[in-house]
Amino acid sequence: MGHEEFLRNAEKVIAKTLPRGIDVTKVELEAANVVIFTKQIEEFSKGSDLVKQLAHALHKRVLIRPDKSILKPVEAAQKILDEIIPKDAGVTDVWFNPATGEVSIEALNPGAAIGRHGAILTEVRKRIGWSPQVMRAPPIPSKTVAEIRSFLRMVTEERQEFLHRLSRRILRDVGDSQPYARLTMLGAYREVGRSATLLTTNISKVIIDCGVKFAPGSDDSPYLSAPEVLPIESLDAMVLTHAHLDHSCMLPALYKFGYQGAVYCTPPTRELASLLQLDYIKVSSGEGKVSAYDSSHIREAVKRTITLGYGETTDISPDIRLTFQNAGHILGSAVAHFHIGDGLHNIAMSGDMKYERSWLFDPTTDHFPRLETLVMESTYGAQNDFQPSRQEAGDELRSIIGRSLARGGNVLLPVFAVGRSQEVMLVLEEIMRSGQIPKVPVYLDGMIWEATAIHTAYPEYLNNQLREMILTEGHNPFLEPMFHKVESQMQREQIINGREQCIVLATSGMLSGGPIMEYFKSWAEGENNVIIFVGFNAEGTMGRRIQRGLAEFSYNDRGQTTRVPCNLQVETVDGFSGHSDRGQLMNWIANLSPRPERIIIGHGEPSKSVDLASSLHKKYGIETRVPQNLETIRLC
Q1: Cis ω for the linkage preceding 594 (within 30 of 0)
Q2: Could you say which of 444, 482, 493, 516 has the lowest number of CB atoms within 10 Å?
């Protein structure tokens, strides 16, 4: 069914479903959504199931928006909002969007703005006509969140035009052809890095992830020039499982190369990916390298991003439906589930995953409605790849920090800005609050503060206990006064040269550059100091060399080579990884419902991928494949 035919049919279904007295003034399609404009918008918010009935009848998500004739003027509407919304909602910004008839309300306490059972929002609709959309304002101001929201307001008309065009592509008339589905491996198969996979059917082409590989001397980009991919503008959709650069870095380059479609990801993934991509450009420039794209391509990606929460489903092409589920890896990370055709085939792609409840997240989802093929990671898939539990890792970190502080030293933690930083912060907050170690300042240097601010904007993506603590008990560990943002080189030097003991979390996690190097250069000689690695260090990186007992290192200071002995204590605390270990990967398959017919292994060193595939086949009798990059596997 083509676009125009679907729209005509939708209008008939809507007229048949809605009771008398509800006047529909216009029906539009935005991407895969049916948008209904009406003068009786309050009738849809009285606790009736009208929207559910329409969605069921149309097999699409249905959005209800007010007809322009019932919208109060902005100035008058603002005054009424000021009267209705209580002060304890902490409203930080209000924006009226004439293109959609929606008013966006940013609040520190969204629940107070919504009211019990949505009572306040119902009153807002009734009195001003505008349809209210409440968003959480980060309690730690986030430059990234603010700039993205501001940018999307600036391009609202362009975005509406894009969504209308996208609906025509999704609902295009495709005719009859023999159905099939296949996967082509474009990166991160028998390797770690540059994740990218192409899902092709007889109708559609979808790329999942598009990352970069940072290992020295390696090809760093996916195989985007493969004939199956080209031309880039033939792609129907781009699906991003999470924000880490080995999955997201090359996404903006797709728009440079001619891609015109949408990006699908969770809301926090959009923010975190933008943050990391902008930093990638900055780092490339600082190293004298030419980036594969510039900031305009990142903005283009943001403008065309469609966000989905966990459990939400949408059509992304004529024959593919996408649903995200929690992956437990980093904020907003998702397992991408694809339903192809009319029950033809179902694929889940794990992305990076953690099948253990961490300090931040609930474990990876293990239930799907249908599942024939699973693509899963194998980063720690070898037989001996077992990690300590989160509790054991926390206890070890507490012990190491306690000993270092007791002997008068400082503590240095190289961390990645997203994920591990926030988990370490939660551990530090708990052991200081409970008196297990002395209370000392904890300095956050690099992108850590901004990444943490984005975490505070999305508590609904955190685990149940942490979410309850923040939203119900009013205790947000990230806001504790022990944490301090490093804002300048002068402040950094004061910390380095100061007499007060402290703990520093700084990027980069592998000591491949960034502010961490300033602290390491100055504190490496001190025998009482300690550097603690809580994340993975790739071969060839400074972090891996230090772990292996580097005796001294040299650096260039204004043309002079300076050598520094490495006398500080070097410790590694396993168990903070956002990846599942061997036991967790095996347990995930054991608990999967339904169990897949086929498992494709990726995102791991060759030996680990083969080891995991062999073990899964022997234990569960499932067909397993370990493809190489550029291989294609037919699924059905």
Answers
A1: yes
A2: 493
